Amino acid sequence: MTAIHIQGLGTYVPAKRITNDDLASRVDTSDEWIVSRTGIKARHMLADDENGSDAGVKAALLALEDAGLEPGDITHVLTATCTPDYLCPSTACILSGKLGTHGAMAFDLNAACTGFVYGLDVARGLLAGNPDAKILLVGSEAFTRRMNWNDRTTCILFGDGAAAVVLTDGDAGTPRACLPSAARLRDVQCGADGRQYPLLTVGGGTARNYRPGDPVQDDFYLQMQGREVFKLAVRSLSSVCAQLLERNGLSLDDVDLFIPHQANLRIIEAVGDRLKLGADKVFVNLDEYGNTSAASIPLGIGDACRQGRIRAGSRVLISAFGGGFTWGAALLEF
After folding, report:
1. Has residue 94 got a pLDDT over 80?
2. Among residues 302, 261, 87, which one has the least CA distance to residue 157?
3. What is the number of alpha carbons within 13 Å of residue 71 lying toward its C-beta?
4. How many whole angstroms separate alpha carbon 195 and alpha carbon 199?
5. Domain extent listing, the chain
């Protein structure tokens, strides 16, 4: 099997920017309190007439442009999200209809904040069976639609955003805009522990037996046991990164840049310490976006490319954890 490559990448964040001071006007918090505990300074919010699928389309069009492809060239549309437009139809189908990828296989996958890494593994399997496929993988989240704005422990953490990549079997040439070179997916590893699902939930599904006219309950919004999530996140991120490097015969000295899921600066720093990575090798952009869940890592890749932190020849380690409880890591070689 020819090596799988990320042939194009596109990112999008909504124009509306919510600072910590903006939040302090509606909930009992402050800029100092938020920054000291999370490292987040701002996040972006979808406009009232904008949905997650709209954000995904904007990112997807940029990824297609980067790859030098048209929507009609795409054979599969995968959308990683845990804040879909609807329970049914899938956001992938909605996105496909807006893009014009008619006839392409389309479905959502929900691994929460690990969704993009899970999507890479799923795409790898699809390309193994169909080497001619051209897969559009979109991570798009509308988390501000599921925030309880009276809960200062959670509403400060999340933002909206989208990012997309085009995956092909083999290097089809140099991308046109965002990526410095087509990134080879060397390996990916994912896991989950369903016993931990109560630690982080977002309602709106059928576990709650709503009847017409019933008011929504608190479990309609994101609920999280932060301390327990922190401990599990640090352990799982550190472990999966070490396992992935070991099975590829590599050490952290062989990694040029580590892009972890952007959830909380304390988690990122704790993982960096466990892996013995210097701050110069750990990429952080959550100060501007907050936690964008499945869009987090590809947004990070895009920003790192624009900042010159990723160049042709860079080896990049990415890793994420999320509700479920899920985790995953992947090695990219540019």
Report:
1. yes
2. 261
3. 16
4. 9
5. 4-169, 183-333
Alpha-carbon gap, residue 268 to 282, rounded angstroms: 8
Q: In CATH terms, are 4-169 and 183-333 the same topology?
A: yes
Q: Where in the sequence numbering do the catalytic residues fall?
A: 113, 261, 291
Which position has the token pair 């008619």? 102
Q: Is the confidence at residue 115, as pLDDT, over 60?
A: yes
pTM to 2 decimal places: 0.96
CB 211 within 8 A of CB 101: no
Q: Mean pLDDT over all residues of the chain?
A: 96
Assigned token pair, 83: 């804040």
20-72, pLDDT tens digit by residue? 999 999 999 999 999 999 999 999 999 999 999 999 999 999 999 999 999 99
CATH of the domain spanning 4-169, picked from 3.30.479.10, 3.40.47.10, 1.25.40.10, 3.90.1150.10 = 3.40.47.10
Cα dihedral: 78, 81, 84, 90 (round 10): 20
**Rounded Cα gap, residues 64 and 136, in angstroms:** 8
- The hierarchical CATH code for the domain 183-333 is 3.40.47.10
